[in-house]
Amino acid sequence: MSGTNSATSANDVCGALTRRSFLKAAGATAGAVGLAGAAGMTSTSGWLKPAQAHAAEEEKTVYTLHQFMCTGRCSLKCTVREGRLAKVEPNDTVEPYYRHCCMKGISEIQHVYSDDRLQQPMKRTGERGSNEFVAITWDEALEIVGEELQKAWGKYGHETVYVSSSNEPRFGQLAALLGAATGVEPGIDRGTGNGSAPAINGDVFGGGTNESRDWVNTKTLIIAGTNLLESSMMQANAFLDAKEAGCDIIVLDPHFSTTAGKANQWVPIKPGTDAAFYLGMITYIVENKLYDEDYMRLHTTFPLLVDETTGVLLRSDASDAASFMVWDSARGAAVSHTEAGATTALEGTFTVNGASCITLLDLLKKNQKQYSTAWAEGTCGVDQATIEEIARKYATAGPAYLAMGQGGSDKYSNPDIIGHAGMVLTALTGNIGKPGAGYGHCIGGAGWGVDIPAWPLPDEFTSPELPVRADRFPIQQNDVHVIISLGNTFQQYWANSHAITDWINGLDFILHIGMYYEDSVRFADVVLPVCSKFEDTVEHSIVRSDYNHVNLQTKCIDPLFESKPDFDVMRLIAQSVGLEQHLPENAEDMVRWQIENSDDLKEQGITLEALMENHGSIKMAGTDEPRRAFTDLEFDTPTGKMEIYYEDVLSTGQAWPNWEENNEVYDGNPLMEKYPLQFTQTRTRFSNHSHFKAATWLQQLRGTYVELNPVDMESRGLSDGDVIEGFNDRGSFKCPVFANEAVRPGTARTLEAGWSKHMVEGNTQNVTNDHINPRDEFLPTGAPIPFNDTLIEVKKA
Prior knowledge:
- By secondary structure, this protein is an alpha/beta fold.
- It contains 24 helices and 30 strands.
- A 7-stranded mixed beta sheet has the order 5-4-20-19-18-6-7.
- α11 (274-287) crosses α15 (384-396) and α11 (274-287) packs parallel to α16 (416-429).
- The chain is globular, with a radius of gyration of 27 Å.
């Protein structure tokens, strides 16, 4: 089986990466007004030139940080030649371990000078979605924006404006200043965190409790739900260092991914069944008493007493929700959990106030009887012996780390069960708070950070909480009438794109702020072009805490065309409604204020001048050792312990993690007779979400197409390069198809969030599942959008 993650023959369709094709693409004519290649405007071919020898005085070197959406947290060294960004490479002044830059960073040259750049403000002239715009001036655009905001405020109220934000744009004060609701939409990247966060009052994104550098101390590393070496390439050194140190790396993935190919063991699990695998592990550990009794007794809620009949925890005071009780074997009585010690019972049946009670550990054992390792094999497709072997390693072989990532198994209907099961495993074995032992993804390294304050606004400027989550706007009654879209939010945060059309057409006003002509642009009434983080009107506009470092953004070049930096656009919007006085005059003033008002930076003696002198990057003091959370084994929960029983959701059947079929992708679903392929959009080294789709170099290496296993290609009479239609009852799309043995039979795989312009027809979001789990209201951030819990069929177009 091939270890590659894409079909090599795809270059026949996507184009070979050559100097000639690059230069030709750079001068291509774009098809809409306001684009970098549009007729009558400056094309990128005027900026990109063939390489020549240049005198040293014509060059300058600038040290800056990479953009936010890329999670590599890289510090960069940029060569600027004749006012043009000419080369991007790693910052050569930081320690070698942190000296890296992937293809996304290197290709920023073409990304900055992309033909997909928005050149100047635009106003819609046709119907929404028609892509009919006319170029206008900034003054004209801002006048419209100010008028529309004032109109909405007067007619509906400030809270009816919503700022929909992706991770890349930096408009931190805009929503509060406008009195608008906002959020990086909660339907994405928080699936497993919904289940793990309550146990430790942790990160709803499921962030790692230990830094990835700590994996050298890990004996068993289980990576699931993420193709780490693709989506978090900058953690490859931590992965390979751990493997060299003797760590047994096990990857759960339906496909033979890049990460699986470098691991010690690949476990080809059925899509969307990770929870069944972990439930099987839990059963094996409890049945064989492989758990850590001392840890469980002192640092978890396993000893708490629970009514055997109702599942309700015993309390000494009905008015105190945290007055839980345990059984003290030495005294032969129920006592407050705060008195728990070495004589606290972990097992047993007791009578308290006339009620029959057992410990949570005994309740877990009763619940797990339905989840034997044989059952797990039948559900997740992994043989029983493998499940048991991995469970034994995890529990007994030394420090273990359960790295559940983003972009895979978290994009089904019920991934909170995965996160909850992961917390139960962690609590049973004590794999937290010590070298090499932890839980959660390590995107961005999960290293040390410092607190950098945001620019303060007067108290009257706040963002309201809306009763309806943003991705539900199209289907639930709400009072939002204006959307300010920062980045490609309409494509990135809404599934089943046909279903949102009526809602979009019913909005009073849509303002799109972005750098590229991405899918969301076509819905806008007004478009404002922002520039890249390499372009600026001041020398420094961003300071950021990045993977054990404090990094400073430094201007490389002037803004291209009529684009403006994020801060400048935010201030202009504020000015359009008379609120600019609440923001600093420029971004550099804000950066200086942030640095001077950060207690953490003061403590470390980090100033703006020091950052400038140190090539834009200073390693934080005390970060030689990897970050490890909860080393004191104290958790910010009502009991101060790991609270692994979720009594507050007892009515949903998920007080313990219990198996629940996916909404669409499950064995025996009658819909599979019509749509037999599970459709997955995976993360990749070529992009982050929909970002970097405008980099032609990356598109030439890995374009937009679907991959099928050769077995599924043959049964459908398909050959490499054929254009296929992927479809279900929600919609369809057309694009090329290629065979790849690394893809699991019965699945169709593509890269996440491909732009419509790179498809033959339609978009992959036309078919994705927008189901809402009925347990939605009980989850910390609500149910995730189940993009991968989708069934389709494909046929030759």
